[in-house]
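Dear U.,

For the methods section draft, I wanted the exact inputs and outputs in one place so we can describe them consistently. I've listed the two proteins in the order they'll appear in the manuscript figures. Please don't edit the token lines directly; just add comments below if something needs changing.

First protein:
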Amino acid sequence: MHRFAALALLVLAACHSAPRGAVIQPGAPTPAVAVERFLGAAKAQDLQALSMIWGSAKGPARDVVDKSQIERRELIMICYLNHDTYRVLSEGLAPEGKRSFNVELRRGNIARSTTLTTVQGPAERYYVEQAALEPLTDLCAGGVPSTRSPAP
């Protein structure tokens, strides 16, 4: 009986000392935080985190994109979104109540601008719904500039 009591105390102590809020919710509380987390997940090449912040009005991609396709799509996005630093150049309204972010990604001495669109999903959480990848081809090509002129 003493062993059971000691084990119960250990379990209670462990539960009490666990950090509060350790459960990570999908999405983000604001559109700007969604962009920040999305780009952070891409930079870290974290497929799990990317699937929690990339999504649609229906929720995170991990819940709405076919499982056989999600990893392939995430790997493609990670390649194009490869960056050392980023900065948000502007933010504005997009159709259907979405938010549009013009973002500059920088890798080495190459800087390219693209647009990320966020959408509100379930439980008032925000997701990056779309990222324009074509302007970021140089970043995916390992930082080798294309023949087109660099972004201002």
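Second protein (the one for the lower panel):
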Amino acid sequence: MNIKERLHRILSTLPEGVQLVAVSKFHPAERLQEAYDAGQRIFGESRPQEMAAKYEVLPKDINWVMIGHLQTNKVKMIAPFVSMISSVDSERLIEEIEKQASKNNRTIDILLEVHVASEETKSGWSEKELRTYLASGILNNMTHVRVRGVMTIATNTDDESIIRRDFTTIRRIFEELKPQFGEAFDTLSIGMSDDYPIALEYGSTMVRIGTAIFGQREY
């Protein structure tokens, strides 16, 4: 199967309204162009330098989503063009996105990354930290950041009950935060190549799939 066939096979499994982020990190621009030619417009990268380099050579109607842990000093590299930063995991990062978006006269969509997995290595706010931050009202002063929803990465396990537990938790957090943000808060980003069919059961509106489209990455 080529990229076009794999892409269309995955799209055929997604309900209406679910966005596909093609995780293109570590893949060369030519492979992204193949997916673009097959109709894909949302691509996910985890390294700002790589995203900026690909932005320069690929069509300008691509929506670029930052999916990896983002250092504050790298925000300025992608602020002029990034569509969404889905891995926002700290107050400092939100402040820097606000600052750089303002400099570029843009509003940048963000997702709040919440840590619900069993592994300590995964990034993200704990639910308690996030609620404390939101209660402070600091976010209300950010005019160049638009909170679109939440994101999480489920525990890396073959035990489906643990994955379901993680998705149950993030779905509850999403529903509980929704009234605070209003209509713009519409994105529940859960599900990757291995677990996205389960994520769809929990109302995922954005899945992040790389290997199943592009094959194994070239590191």
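Candidate sentences for the figure legend, describing the second protein: The chain has one domain: 3-214. The longest helix spans residues 160-181.

Thanks,
Y.
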